[in-house]
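[job 0412] stage=complex_fold ligand=magnesium ion status=START
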Amino acid sequence: MLKTPEAEFICSSPNLAQAPRRPLPEIAFAGRSNVGKSSLINSLLNRQKLALTSRTPGKTRLLNYYLIGRGKYYFVDLPGYGFARVPGKTQHEWAESIEEYLRDSVRLVLVVLLLDIRHGLTPLDEQMVNALSVYHRRWMAVLTKSDQLGTADRQKAIQEHTGLLISRGARAVLPYSSLHHEGREPIWREFFSVLENKSPM
Ligand SMILES: Nc1nc2c(ncn2[C@@H]2O[C@H](COP(=O)(O)OP(=O)(O)O)[C@@H](O)[C@H]2O)c(=O)[nH]1
Ligand SMILES: [Mg+2]
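[job 0412] stage=complex_fold status=DONE, emitting C-alpha cells
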C-alpha cells in the first residue's frame, strides 16, 4: 500500500511571475470548472480540505501551489475553465493564465487533464488538448466521478474515452471516484514514474 505523501498549501499566484521560486518539478491539474479537480487533489492526498471544493463552480481563479512529499515537488491546481456564468473578459484572463503556464513553466513534468467520465472530451477540453500538443506537454487523463455510472456503462465509457485520448497523446487514462477514493494507486504510480524521470517532456 502506498503511503500518502505530506502536503502543504503554499500560495495562490495570479501568474507565473508570482509563482513560488523553488526549483521543483510540477504536476499540474487542469479541467473544466466542477469536473472534480479539488476533490481529486484532496482525495489523492488523503486530506479533507486541502484544496477548496465548492458547489459554486468557477471559484478557483489562480494557480494554486501545494508542496508535496516534504519539499520534493509541487501540485499546481490550474484555474477551472468553461464556467458559463463568468463574464467573458474574466474567462479570457483565465484562459490566458492557463496558456501562459503551459507555454512557459520550466518545471512542468506532467499535466493531469480531468474529464467527467460521463462526458469525455468536450469542445473546451479539445482546446486544452490542442494547447498541450502545441506546447509539447506530457499529459494523462483522469476520468472523474466514475461512481456516477454503473459497472457496464463505466467499462464502456473507459474503453471509448481511452481509445480517443491515447490517440490524442495521453500517456495514460485512468478512472477515479473521489467519493469512494477509488483509483488512487494507478494514478500515484503514473506520478512516481514521471517524477523519477524529470525531464519536462
Ligand atoms: N459523485 C461524485 N461527485 C464528485 C466527485 N468529485 C467531485 N464531485 C463533486 O463535484 C462537485 C465539484 O467538485 P470540485 O472538486 O469542487 O470541482 P472543481 O471545480 O473541478 O475543483 C462537488 O460537488 C463535488 O462533491 C466524484 O468522484 N464523485
Ligand atoms: Mg476547484
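Residues 37-38, 60, 80 surround magnesium ion (ligand 2) (CB under 6 Å).
[job 0412] exit 0
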